Amino acid sequence: MTPPAILMLSAAHPPDDVRIVAKEGAALAAAGFPVRHLAPGPDAATRLLHGVALQTYPKPSGGWRARLLGIPALARRAAALRPAVIHAHEPDSWAAALLAARRCGARVVLDVHEHYPSRLDPVLPRMLRPFGRALVATACRLLASRADAVVVAKDGLEGWLGGLARCTPVRNYATPVPVTPRRHRAGPLTLLHLGALTRARGAFIMLDALALLPPGTRLRLIGRFTDGSEAAFRERSLALGLAAQVEYLDWMPREEALALAAEADIGLVLFQPGVENHRLALPHKLFDCMLAGLPVIVPGLAEEVAAIVRSADCGLTVDTADATAVATAIQALSDPAVRDAMGQRGRDAALTRFGWAGEAARLVRLYRLLTPSSNAAIQAAIAAAPASVWPSARSPR
User: Fold this and answer.
1) What is the pLDDT of residues 290-317, one digit of tens each?
2) Among candidates 13, 3, 108, 113, which has minimal Cα distance to 51?
3) Dihedral (C-alpha) 142, 169, 158, 16: value to the nearest 10 degrees?
4) Which of 94, 161, 170, 183 has the greatest number of CB atoms lying within 10 Å of its CB?
5) How many CB atoms lie within 10 A of CB 286?
6) Is 356 exposed, middle or buried (0-12, 13-18, 19+ CB in 10 A)?
7) Considering the entire predicted model, what is its pTM?
8) How many C-beta atoms surround the C-beta of residue 120 within 10 A?
9) What does the DSSP 8-state code read for residue 105?
10) What pLDDT sits at residue 137?
11) Cα–Cα dist 172/372, whole Å
C-alpha cells in the first residue's frame, strides 16, 4: 500500500532549510513517507535532498504584505499536489495549509518555530506592541485550533498558543554529521559564528570583544548579514584595526561548514537582549558547535540554550550585551585542556540526550497516528495524485 504523502509547506523558509528538510523531512522519508517541500526560491526544478523532493515557486516581492496577499495562491499550489498531510511552517503558510485542506481533504500540522507575536515589535511604536502581540497571538490560536496537530521547535513556545493539548515537542536538537571534532592546542584563538549575522545577534559585540583580546585572535564568520549591516560592520572593523583578523565565508553545505567549524576554538552565540525570540531561542548553531567539539559562549538570557550549556558543562553563559564580559569569557577558555574537556562534553551531549533521534521518533509516531493505513480518504487522495508528484519511499537519500 502506498504510504501517505506529506507536503512540507513554506512561505519564507529556503528550500533546503535544516529543520524542515534535514531533520523533519529526512526523518519522515526514512520512515517510508513520500515527502515534498514546497518553498519560495529562484529555481523551479525539483531535486532530492535527504530523501525529500524540493520544489520551488516564485517568491512574492513586497515583504509581508505580499506574503499575506499570496496566501490564496500558495493554497492552490499546495492543494494541486493532493497531499495526505500538509505540514506548514509559518503563520501565513498555516493559513494557506488550512485553505488547501478544504480543497483536497488533507490533514494539517502546524509547526511553531518561534514566538510569532513579538515579530511585529520592531515595526510598532512601544505603546502599540502589546496590542500587536495580542492580535497576532489571537490569529495564531485560531489557526492552531483548526489544525489536526501542532508541533513546537523549542520548549516554552506552546504557552502563548493557549496551552493546546495537541502540541507535540519536536525540538531542534542535534542531527549527527560526520565531522572530526576539534583537538584543541595552544596558540592564538579562532572564534566562530555560524549562520545569519545581525546587530541583534551580536555582530558588533563580537568586534568590540575582539578589540579587547590579544592581537593574534581571529574571528571566522560562516554565513551572511541579513539586516543590511555588513558595510557598517566592515567599517567598524577597519576603525578598530581588526580587518585582517576577520574572515568572511558565505553560506555553504552544512557538512562543509562543520568541517571548518572544527578548525576553530570557541563558538559564539551572542543573541542580544530585548527580543523575545532570543529568550526562547534554540538555534542550530549551538548544536553544530557542540558536534564540532567547540566550547560555546552563550547568552544567559536565552533560557533553554543556557540550561543546555550549563547541564552539559560545555561552555559559559554571559551578558552578551557587554563586550568586556564576552572577552573575559573568551580569555577564561584560553587553556586548550579546558576547551578540549568542554568540547568533548558538548559533543557527547549533542550525540545523546540532546540528539535528534528522540525528536524524530516522536514526529514519526505523530504521523502514524495521523495517517493510519485504514483511512480510506487519505488513500484516495494519494491515488488521485500523479505518480510523478511524490518521491518513492525508496528514493536515494
Assistant:
1) 999 999 999 999 999 999 999 999 999 9
2) 3
3) -70
4) 94
5) 28
6) buried
7) 0.86
8) 16
9) -
10) 86
11) 26
